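can u do me a favor
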């Protein structure tokens, strides 16, 4: 690897204290193409980045990934390409990846924090591919979130699952760890999306990653989870997940999921002005101009068809179409035993069939707008 990928200045390292830092970098050694970019992750020497480094050394070498793709006839597999790692000043550990692009969370934050059904299902299948690879190599990811999924603005066929700081070797030497509550620190990972196993302090297993992906899909498609407002009260989140994990899709498919009657299309919104106002929306005299508070300037900059799509999302017209697939997914995942191997092909098919009806594939360019 090149000896120096970027300026490891005091400023950059100071920003790293207490939390990992991910920056775009370029080679300074002259041994790599001038315009080739990398993603550089920095963290304290003994931070979670050490766990991530171990994952890449054990389970995600480039040759292993390529063999998997060929053996399973997978055209694209979003495992990061780790091209180097090391220590800086004996205090900070770094990992260097081929450029990851932008996180899905940053893309969601550009808009209304929602994905179209097509894009969500494309991403779901791509993440399932990654999870099958990881799981077959004795690890689980442990922290599936939009922050850890990356898109390449220059090539939207590229979807990468990154962020292996919470990766757990659930099956060392082919022997699955036993379920033991309290054997690990409870609630490790992103509270909104981690599995019930992680909440209880047992080692996450294959079902844990799949459960987290289900929660992510609900958030991307519906905009909110039943526990999204309770994140400061972890036990309340756990209780909500235990109570509503399988029934969430049913709620999402009902008009009441977003707290309003389903208007269906933009033109029908005016009849529901009171509800929209209670939710913090302003309802102008022309319902086609309905905008969420603070989003007016953003939508004015959008192309007309994009603005119309965003408004349709506000009317929840997208909800009924994805509920069946999502409900089936969560029901199957939540029924898995701790040590049970999931049927990844069947889970992919739940999202693949709707994509086929749209004449689309999971490996097409994502149906999402991403700026560099």
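np, heres the sequence
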């Amino acid at each position: 690897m090149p000896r120096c990928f970027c300026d490891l200045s005091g400023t950059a390292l100071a920003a790293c204290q207490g939390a990992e830092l991910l920056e775009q970098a370029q080679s300074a050694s002259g041994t790599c193409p001038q315009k080739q970019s990398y993603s550089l992750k920095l963290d304290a020497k003994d931070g979670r980045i050490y766990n991530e480094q171990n994952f890449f050394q054990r389970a995600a070498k480039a040759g292993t990934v390529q063999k998997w793709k060929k053996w399973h006839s997978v055209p694209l597999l979003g495992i990061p390409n780790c091209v180097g790692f090391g220590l800086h000043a004996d205090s900070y550990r770094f990992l260097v990846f081929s450029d990851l692009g932008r996180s899905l969370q940053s893309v969601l934050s550009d808009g209304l924090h929602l994905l179209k059904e097509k894009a969500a299902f494309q991403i779901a299948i791509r993440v399932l591919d990654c999870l099958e690879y990881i799981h077959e190599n004795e690890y689980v990811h442990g922290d599936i979130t939009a922050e850890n999924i990356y898109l390449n603005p220059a090539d939207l066929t590229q979807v990468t699952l990154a962020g292996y700081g919470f990766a757990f070797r659930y099956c060392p030497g082919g022997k699955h760890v036993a379920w033991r509550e309290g054997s690990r620190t409870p609630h490790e990972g992103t509270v909104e999306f981690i599995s019930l196993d992680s909440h209880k302090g047992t080692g996450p297993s294959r079902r844990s990653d799949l459960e987290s992906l289900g929660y992510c899909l609900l958030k991307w498609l519906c905009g909110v989870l039943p526990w999204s407002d309770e994140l400061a009260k972890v036990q309340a989140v756990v209780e909500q997940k235990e109570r509503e994990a399988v029934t969430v899709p049913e709620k999402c498919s009902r008009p009441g999921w977003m707290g309003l009657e389903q208007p269906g299309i933009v033109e029908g919104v005016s009849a529901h002005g009171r509800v929209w106002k209670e939710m913090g929306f302003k309802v102008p005299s022309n319902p086609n101009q309905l905008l969420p508070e603070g989003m007016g300037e953003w939508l004015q900059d959008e192309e007309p068809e994009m603005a119309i799509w965003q408004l349709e999302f506000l009317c929840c017209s997208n909800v009924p179409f994805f509920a069946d697939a999502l409900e089936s997914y969560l029901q199957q995942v939540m029924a898995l035993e701790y040590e049970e191997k999931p049927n990844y092909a069947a889970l992919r098919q739940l999202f693949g069939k709707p994509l086929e009806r749209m004449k689309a594939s999971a490996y097409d360019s994502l149906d999402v707008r991403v700026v560099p």
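The CA atoms of residues 27 and 33 lie 8 Å apart. hope that helps!!
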